[in-house]
Structures are given as structure tokens and as C-alpha cells.
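Agenda item 2: adenosine-5'-triphosphate complex prediction
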Amino acid sequence: MMCSRDSTVKVFIRFRPTDKFAHEFIECLPDQQTLRVQSRKGFRKGKTISPLSSWLFRLNGVMENVSQEDIYHRVARSVVQEAFSGYNGTIMCFGQTGAGKTYTMTGAAETYAQRGIIPRAIQEVFQEAEHRADYSFSVHLSFLEIYNETLLDLLSSIKPGKTSKSGILTVVEEPGGGVSVKGLSLHRVHNEEEALNLLFEGEMNRIIGEHALNKQSSRSHCIFTIHIESRSHTLSDAKYITSKLNLVDLAGSERLSKTGSEGQVQTEAMYINKSLSFLEQVILALADRHREHQLSTLRFASRMKCVQTKPSVNEHIDPVVQKLEKEIKFLKENLSRFNTLTSQVTNEMLSGTEVAEVRSQVQRYLSGSLDEIPIVSVPQIQEVFEQFKKVLLEQQEKFQERLSSKSIRDETAMNTAPSAIEGSVGEVEGNGYGLGLAKSSQRHLQPKAKGRKEKQTSRKEGPSCLSAENPSSHNEQPQNTNAPNTLAQESLLQAPEEELTRNHEINRILKENKSVLYERTTQLRRLSTLINDTKRNIDRIASELRQYREQRQSRGEFVSPEAEPVLEEEELYLVMQLKDLKSRYRRAYDDMTSTKAEVSYCQHLVNQCRTRLLTEFESWYNESFLLPTEVLSVLKDGVLRPGHIGVDKALSLMEDDPRGLHQPDAETTSAASFYNAYKRTLQRRGSRAVSQSPESAKGSRTRIKVSPLLSDEVNTH
Ligand SMILES: Nc1ncnc2c1ncn2[C@@H]1O[C@H](COP(=O)(O)OP(=O)(O)OP(=O)(O)O)[C@@H](O)[C@H]1O
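Presented output:
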């Protein structure tokens, strides 16, 4: 019998060759899968044996006079193959004593051609492992004997092996289902021969009982298990597959009355029958003890065939390898990002298409349809900032347009009631963002309490003035008709103005630093060319001098009256030239050293400016776009939109709402405390983040940091 990957148990019948085969009772039909068994009609102890005279048993194969090799190929081979795909398999022999179970499973040890399923399976396992070069395999063996309901380790005498210290074997349930024998020794084998050694050693240890039917009868059940573990060389190391091949040689079923057993042998026979009977019950139902013995075996076999199985691949994940793989993946990603950035640190320009793509990304990011802008290179990051700046400037322009139209209306209102807004609205500024607003210096210096009072005054008088002068103006911007709200919103416009000015300033410094850097780098290049040229000249002159001196020595030297060598004019000229070159070389070298230091310093400044710009942007973004719901609801009806004002300013606006809809109640105060605390936390993170590299700012909005420059707290009065 065998269990295989498809969901049914396959059952085969093998007849042991014998001269006494009862052909008149047992007939194999031509399909080689069906057996017809006839029963003798008669009486025993006055009872009819059976009202039926024959039975048909349908099996997966009926094999008569087939070789050991054929048996292996028809019954066992596919089970062994499937073990390599991670499926457990069981091949089990059932039959009465002397039927040929041990012969089929183990074979005749002395004849190679008659070796049974187990040695052939071992051979196939190692051959298959050799063929599968993409995998590494480890094979372990265990050999269990069940004798008189006692578990025995047939390989316990072999060392080394994983085995329990107590030597007591117990059947335990495995966490993932199935059972295993705790304490059974497992032996690693590296080749066919090592495995066969263990098989034969175990066979030797098997208890053989003297028996009346068969002198070499197996009095125990034996399970020889091949444990296979395979890991792919090419796929993930975290995953590996295990499988077990259980090769079972059951003890022979027998009738005690027939064997004439006594004492120990009788006890053995009882246990054997009991365990086989349990096995049968487990498979389907109790055996019919009133039938001829072969009939019982055939019944058992045909019932076994009905058993449905649910095979599954034993795939495991090694948690340590999995963790390491994750780490490797993470590090590889970081490395590749780093490599991309460092390889593109040069000031390459983006193409028109790339710029357009960045612009589209920024717009989608701002509209919320894009979660994050992936970092690709330094020029791309710069372009992202550039595009953000453009969007900001566009917003500013739109504001200015709205403000100018509104300030004209406010001016008209002022003319009718100047005292009402005195101090709130100053002279018209001639340029920039101050159109129609009080001078920024005035706005900055106004204490908050005063500002509120003024706003209250305006609140009282503004609307009447406007309606008196130009009632139609209500219709132009119905959502913005009350002056106090307008004034509060106007004062908030400082935020983007200040932001912009500050960013312009940083940008200006960045540009200056970059131009100095460029100049110094050019100088450095010039100096290094000069040094190289000078060095070449020094080498040339030194060689000429050497040649000249060699010639002079060969033709004899001029000496002075004091017997000192006299330098000829040509040699003197060369010496002077060499001296001059050496001093030029030294000067250039010194210049180059100091220029190098300057370049490095300038580079540092440029980097700082870039980081600062990034931080400012993050700060602006957080302040402007991550507005709490309460603030958004206030802004909903006004001309202001997220991005125009900061959280603190927006909360001030809530206080000034004349409709009383957003008077600072307990909830608002609590919200303000919450945002103050949140902001402080962000600031702490932000101050740490300023020193970090720009790429750390990549990603989702939650990762954006707040600049330490914006340290005002939300005011709740
Ligand atoms: N197909 C066969 N061809 C040749 N000899 C066989 C065949 N089957 C069994 N035999 C021989 O019959 C004898 C009994 O076989 P075997 O020991 O395998 O029976 P068994 O079913 O294992 O019995 P037990 O349950 O008592 O252990 C052995 O000598 C064996 O060599």
C-alpha cells in the first residue's frame, strides 16, 4: 500500500509465488486491478459461512510474479519523487505471516537484485539529490520498532545521533498536526552506503521470535523513516522544505489457533493482532473475524483504498534567515539610493520632460493624489523645491490680486469712518506685499491685546460703514463681508510673506555661496594644472642638468685657481631655472592647499543652505497644510485656504470670529494645548533633523519636520 500526493491511498496486492496457489478460489481479472474471491460453501459449528459465494475487490494493481524492481517502480518510485517536492509519503506492507512483507520492504539482504523497496528508495534519494544541483539536501534516518506495544529505537546503538537522554520513547502530537516519536534518534547520512549501514544495523537489532509458522518471522512492526530537508541555492534561504518517507513493515497478522504459539510468542501474536486490529479500525472498521484470512487482508486493502488524504507541502520559514534577508533588502535599498544620490551630485540639469514630471508630482502631492515624491537625485530634489516655490509664488500672486481689490473697498470704508480703523490700517505701501495693509513693522509691534481691541472696534463699526458706502460690495464677496474677519485674515497674511522673504534670503545666500564655490573650484583646477606643469618642467630641467653634468665629467672639468669646479654658463642657467621652478612649485602648492580648504568650507556652506531650505520648506508645509479639522472648518468660508496661514494664526482667527461660532471654548483650548504640545514635539525632532541630510525628509507628510525658527506658540486667550 502507499499514500501519495493525490488524495487517495493507493493499494496494490502482491502474491508471493507458491505452488499451492488456490486458483480455484482467487482469480485476477484481465484489468489487473480486480480480484474475484470465491468462498467454499459449507458449515462450521452449524452455521453457514456466508450466503454469498464470491466477492470482487477493486484495487490499484494486482501483481503476481513481478520482480522487486517492478514493485519499486509501480508502487514506490512516485512517492519517493514527491518527497522531494515536500510531500510526506508512506509505504506500508500488510499481510499474514510469511506473505512476503519483509521481502517486499527490505528484500533479501544477500542478493542485490532482490533488494526491497527501502534500499531502492535510499538509492533513489541520493541519486535525486545529486541531480538537483540547485538545492542542498540533508538526509536523516530513524528506525522505530513497535514490539508488544513498546516503542524501541533500532538505531540507539549507533552514535552519534540526536536522541533523548532517558532513552524512553513517547508518541507526541506535533504543533502543526501529525505525530512524532519523542526521543527517537535521528542520524545524518551523507551517502547511500551510510544509509544502508544504518538500515542493516537496525534490521539486525530487530527482534526475531522463533515461530512455528516461520523461523524468521517478524514479531514487530517497523517504521524506517527517511527525513529529507532541502534548501534552494537560488531562491530565498529563509524557506526550506522538509518531508518524511515512512517505510513500514508490519508484523504478520495471524490466527493464534493456526500458529500453535505459546508463552512469549503467543503474547507477541496477541499484541500484533491487537495493534493491527486497531490499525484496521482506524482505517475503516473492524475486521470480520469470521472470514478466511486472505479475505480479511483483501477487505482491509479495499477499505484502505477508500481513505482520502490531504497531502500538503511541508514548507518552513527560518525566522533568523528571514530577518537577515529583510535587513539585507533594507540595506541594499539604502545603498542603491545612496549610490544614486552620490553619483548624481554633479550639477546636472534636468530635461524639460523631467521638470514637467516633477511639477506634476508636486501638484499631485499637494492635491493629495500622490502620497510621496520619490527621491531620485539631487537635481531632482532641487527641482522639487523649485516647483514648490513656484506654487507658493503663484498662490501669493493670487492673494495679492484679491487683496488689492479688497483694499480698494476697505479704503473707501476708511474714508467714511477713519477713526474706526485708525491704527489698524496704515499707509499704503508702495511696493511688494503691503498693498492696502498696515506696514509690516507696525503689525509686528502691535501687542496682541491691542490688536484684539482694535479688531473689536472694527467689528462694531466696519459693516455699517461698508454698507453705508457701498452696499453692493456685500454681493461681491458674500462670504467675506465683515471687516473684523477681513482684518484678522489680513494680519495672517504676514505668514507666507515672512516665509517667502526668509526663503528668498536663504536662496540668495545659497546662490552667493555657490558662485564663490564655483570661483574657488576653478581656481583650484587652475592651480593644480600649474603645479603639474611646473613639476613636469622641473623634471625636464633636472634631467637636462644631469645629462649636462655627465657630459662635462666625461670631457673633463674646468677648475678655478683655487681648484674648485667652475660652472659653465649653460649649466648655471639650468641651475637658476631649476631653482626658480622649485620656488614656483612651492608657492603654487601652498596656494592650492589654502584654496582646497576654502573649497571645502564653501561646499559646507552650500550644503548647509540646501539643508536649511529644505527645513524651511518642511516647516512651511507642516504649518500650512497639516491644519487641524477645527481650523479647516474656520477657513472653509473665507478666502484663505490651507497653505496661506499657519496653525497658530488660524487659531487666532477662530477667536476673532464675530459670529461666535468659534469662540474659544474648552474644546478649542484643549485643541490648542494639544497642538502646542504637538508642535513642541515636532520642534524637538526638527532641531535634531536640521543636521540631517536632505534625503531623510523624503516620504510621507508625517515625516516632515518643523523648523526651530518657528517657535511661536498657539495663543488661546
Ligand atoms: N515474492 C517473493 N519471491 C520470492 N520469495 C519470497 C517472496 N515473498 C516472500 N518470499 C520468501 O518467503 C519468506 C517469507 O517472507 P517474509 O519474511 O518476507 O514474510 P513476512 O510477510 O515478512 O512474514 P512475517 O510477517 O512473519 O515477518 C521469505 O523466505 C521470503 O524470502
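Discussion summary: Residues 16-17, 95, 97-103, 108, 214, 216-218, 251-252 surround adenosine-5'-triphosphate (CB under 6 Å).
Owner for follow-up: CH.
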